Amino acid sequence: MPDGLTLNKITAQRGISIGEAARRVADLGWTPSYVQEANTFPTDYKIKKVPRDPMKQVLRSYFPMQEEKDNRVYGALDAALRGDMFRNVEPRWIEWMKLFLAIIPFPEISAARSMAMVGRLAPGEELRTGFTMQMVDEFRHSTIQMNLKKWYMENYIDPAGFDITEAAFGKCYATTIGRQFAEGFLTGDAITAANVYLTVVAETAFTNTLFVAMPSEAARNGDYALPTVFLSVQSDESRHIGNGHSMLMSILQDPDNHKLLERDLKYAFWQNHAIVDAAIGTFIEYGTTNRDKKKESYAELWHRWIYEDYYRTYMLPLEKYGIKIHHDDVAHAWDRIVKSNYVHKTAQFFAVGWPVNFWRIEAQTEKDFEWFEHKYPGWYAEFGNFWKWYDKLSHKGSKPILFAEEVGYVYPYRCWSCMVPALIREEFCVGEVDGKLYTYCSEECRWTHTTAFAAEYEGRPTPAMGRFSGRREWETCYDGWNLADCIQDLGFVRSDGKTLIPQPHLRFDDREMWTLDDVRPYTLGSPLEALRKMTPEAREKAIADYRAGFTINAIN
Amino acid sequence: MSATQETVDSVKSGAAGAAKFVDWDSRKFNYFEPKGRKASHYEDVTVDVQPDPKRYLLQDWIISFADGTPTYAENWTQALASDWHRYRSVDQEWEKTHYQRQSTIVGMLQNVINNGRRSGAPTRFDPAWVKILQDHLGAYKHAEFGLGTATMQAQRYGFTQMVNNAILTNSSYKLRFAQDLTLYLSEIGLDIEKFDIDAGKRHWLDDPVWQGTREAVEAIMGATDYLEQYFAVNIVFEPLVGELFRSGFIMRVAAAQNDFITPAVVSAAEGDYERNLANAVELMHMLATDEKHGAHNQKLFGTWLSHHGALANKAAANLQPIWSLPRVKVAQYTDAVAQAHNRLRAIGSEVGIDVRGVIGS
Ligand SMILES: [Fe+2]
Ligand SMILES: [Fe+2]
Ligand SMILES: [Zn+2]
């Protein structure tokens, strides 16, 4: 063939450019004149119908591109089985996937639903097209993750916990955190929820930790399936981030929106920190058996992705539009991770609560201690004894660590805003809304409940803003319950009617596995209800004591 | 003790069956009742992902709208169900099947269009037909888009994952088809001299022939009951207007105008509709025969049917002049309408509702 002559050139015919195609597709919309679209999901923001410049794509190229991605995912799952992946996988890691994958499909589909809310508000049809594709993407994410979970259930040594996954999601004290995350995407002010909380903060700032850091750690634990699925999921995020940014830019243009935007950026950033860092930090640091000192810790990843990439290059530039950025909160979140051991305290809390989990948590051991101390100096002094106790009390017939007074752990109050307990004791605080007492993990979370989720903000009515509702403190649901009855009510019992689904170890042997009888003598209580019942003096003292913290006793 | 220790330490594998203990073989999601003997893949990846306080949502919804409405509320439709969770979509769509199908369709269309254009087919279309495509298929694409955005809105409100995902894929199909038509017309417009790509929208907005259709579509877009939207799209508008135009006109007439490409493009939408219709009928049938609420739902569907049916009838009547535009006349408007009415009767009997009020008996 002569130089420069290819089959492509011979057969090529005049086509329309992608820009032209996107413009034509955008022209499908019109302003109704017979019947107006109802404003069913209201917002307090004013949205100027100024078209921005969103990503250009049409469904004709979108569907084949996505199918191609899918082919790679399903091909890789097949290959993983052929390669006997599960023979070498680390159970410590897969156990945490019972929690992670119980949570994540609901936030994903919630993101799809929330596209309905921003779809109608979109300034310009090109952006609405972007939201359409995001809707289908999120449907993809939700069901592809359910598929992965099913696959683990079918192939992993202990399927218990995977087999009850969506039921567990609705009931567990840990998944409540994920439900707060998801409901935040689709309830209340449409822009607050679907634009700021979901896209501008969760997707733009935090999906790297979810969908990039998690896969790396999975691979270090012999799990090649999760990376395949989640990197494929993450490859859709840049479009979503683009959608969110376009919307944000159109909101920014109206100075009337600035106060609301400052409120929402503050709320969304803080709550994403509280929720995502707690959960993903724990999976990555405690779900792994890899203790390579050269790999980045969660704190190091956070600094790179959240501090450098998000705070410095995405948030700070918003200042030039006159938006006040909550620098203090970013610094505070960072301090909580590196100085206050937020992630480690979360892992400790999950471990203490093991009998009401639906996955296994094994003890951290000497091999792990060294890495933690290297990455988080001072770790051993604060957590070393705890994990030794945990190991000791992991044997069937021991007292559950939660009830073993000799350990010295004090069960935490639940934060009414982020649903993570008040683990950094000195930051614990209380507040009142409509004459009722509530507990919080931090000042920021108190502000979220008392000031942000309210009928007015800084003197301005905010009729579209959502409210916190439901039985938000999980512990209230089982206040005064016997622990065995509670576990039975949760459905976290295996099919023999007595062996627990959760176990404080990875010993896959009936003789080692705890049953309802082993946990029967203990009673659960709600810290919040107890605090509410106290006299003001007793309460003040209880708060002061709690803030003073606790010490884990030495173990011999 | 040492015996235990040995057994325990010998489990070096994380693979299924590496050790036997309680539930080592519990390898099915066990929290929902499958529709058939065993759960389908679709059910496994769909059921209960959207939680419900009546099932497993222990703490109830934890955020509400300002008026106290929770994240999902049953009263977002006037229809009532004893158990919304019983519904399963007929097409069993989840992401893998959805992308495969959508991708196959766009691939097929691009082949047909590219090959047709390469052979110069659009230049041989009958000139009167070209103008029909330009003005009227060009107008109709906006109707499809309107139904796509209405269902995009509706998929936020359903009370289960199964309901919402069926509506979501419906939206995805409609929006794809609206874009298919848009890009198809733009591409043949490159080959046909003086093809006015903007004419379709002008006809959609101003041509009296299309105003009934636009009103019917806007009424669906503007409905605040999500199930009314889903009902109006699939049970009413599609048979009486959508299919009438697609099957009863384009598909029947095109070949005689020397056009074999357009029917291929439009046939994709007919295939989409078969699936969306099956899904919608299944849901409406479940509601119409609900032990407790069947009578209430039938009455409600009757209201929706007469409201949207009247608009659809008007739309169809307005479209009549289009049938006399082609130079080679091979289809009668009255035949097409009769077929549409037959279709609606069949749908009505499957759902279990009386459609005589809209189309006579
Ligand atoms: Fe997603
Ligand atoms: Fe996303
Ligand atoms: Zn908090």
Automatic annotation (TrEMBL), chain A:
GO molecular function: monooxygenase activity
InterPro entries xref list: Ferritin-like_SF (IPR009078), Phenol_Hydrox (IPR003430), RNR-like (IPR012348)
Keyword Oxidoreductase found: yes
Residue ranges of the TM segments: none
Record bears the keyword Oxidoreductase: yes
Keywords: Monooxygenase, Oxidoreductase
Protein name in UniProt: Methane monooxygenase
Lineage: Bacteria, Pseudomonadati, Pseudomonadota, Alphaproteobacteria, Acetobacterales
From TrEMBL, chain B:
Oxidoreductase listed as a keyword: yes
TM helices/strands, residue ranges: none
Keywords tagged on the record: Monooxygenase, Oxidoreductase
GO molecular function: oxidoreductase activity, acting on paired donors, with incorporation or reduction of molecular oxygen, NAD(P)H as one donor, and incorporation of one atom of oxygen
InterPro entries in UniProt: Ferritin-like_SF, MP_mOase_hydro, Phenol_Hydrox, RNR-like
Gene3D superfamilies: Ribonucleotide Reductase, subunit A
Name of this protein: Methane/phenol/toluene hydroxylase
Organism of origin: Acidisphaera rubrifaciens HS-AP3
